[in-house]
Write a structure and sequence with these properties.
single chain, 3-stranded mixed sheet, 14 helices, two-stranded antiparallel sheet, 299 residues
């Protein structure tokens, strides 16, 4: 009962806040009281007890910032009552420029200030995967090399209907470089990407015209991902047959590689951003020992 009381009373009201970030036309606010209450919550939640000391240090070092988008109780209540549900779907984000994780408190609590244990935990796991990938990339990729290989082996083998499992060692290394490259340097890497895929899919069971269609769609989606993501998203929701074929394989690869169904995202970033695979995995398998270890590495 004591634990439940702690969770019910954990968050400070959105008062006495100070601005900490202005991004995309929105001011983000936080306070020492809010940070303190957030730490109390993390210590109270069963799902974060074991990693609470590391999260507390990351909050103290301002790598994780619990925050509000609305300053004052009336604005908070107005937001909770009247803002459309779809606009409250973002629970947190990693800001690349600030190199900090922001947890949006009002999207993680009820009208009464009770925190959502699962939502907060999964948001922390997901966004801190981005934080580790950016701050300590060599450590990050070394930790999760086997998981990346398992996912992309499942993807390439299934999508191109191979007779044997694809050797994706070169592919995963290339993808890591591609994700970290500046926009103007992606062209040569995508050219190498195409050649690697051709080299590791020679034992396809697809007819030549079928293979060409899959290959073309695969790299068209990557090109749109970099240049016009909204158009790619439109084609996904318009149920473009060739695009959906790739999306289905992206979904299946989570089940094949990790034994779990991805029911939290519409996958497409995985084609060019391998960190997305690991971020999604962190939400699907939050108790996985490697996922928990990232907080110790970051702290």
């Amino acid at each position: 009962m004591q634990r439940q009381n702690q969770v019910n009373e954990l968050f400070a009201l959105p008062v006495n806040l100070e601005p900490v970030l202005y991004t995309d036309g929105i001011m983000i606010y936080s306070s020492e009281t809010l940070k303190s209450k957030f730490v109390e919550a993390i210590k109270a939640f069963p799902s974060t007890e074991d990693i609470a000391p590391y999260i507390e240090k990351l909050i103290k070092d301002e790598k994780i910032i619990p925050c509000f988008m609305n300053k004052g109780v009336l604005k908070f209540l107005s937001y909770k009552f009247f803002t459309p549900k779809e606009e409250k779907g973002i629970l947190g984000f990693y800001h690349l420029g600030q190199k900090k994780v922001f947890i949006l408190v009002e999207n993680n609590i009820t009208f009464y200030g009770k925190g959502n244990d699962k939502a907060i935990t999964l948001t922390l796991l997901h966004e801190c995967m981005h934080l580790l990938a950016d701050l300590k990339p060599s450590t990050y990729w070394k930790m999760f090399e086997s998981e990346l290989k398992a996912y992309y082996q499942a993807l390439i083998t299934n999508l191109f209907n191979l007779k044997s499992k694809a050797d994706v060692s070169k592919l995963t290394k290339l993808l890591v470089l591609l994700e970290g490259a500046k926009m103007q340097k992606t062209g040569p890497l995508i050219k190498k990407y195409k050649q690697i895929v051709k080299d590791i899919t020679t034992d396809t069971k697809l007819e030549e015209h079928e293979y060409d269609r899959v290959f073309s769609t695969y790299f068209e989606m990557i090109d749109l991902g970099f240049k016009d993501a909204q158009r790619l998203i439109y084609r996904i929701y318009a149920k473009d047959r060739d695009v959906i074929n790739v999306i289905i394989s992206l979904y299946k690869s989570y089940k094949i590689a990790f034994g779990v169904v991805n029911n939290i995202t519409t996958p497409f970033q995985e084609l060019f951003a391998p960190s997305e695979v690991l971020c999604v995995m962190s939400e699907l398998k939050p108790s996985y020992s490697k996922i928990r270890k990232i907080f110790k590495v970051l702290a």
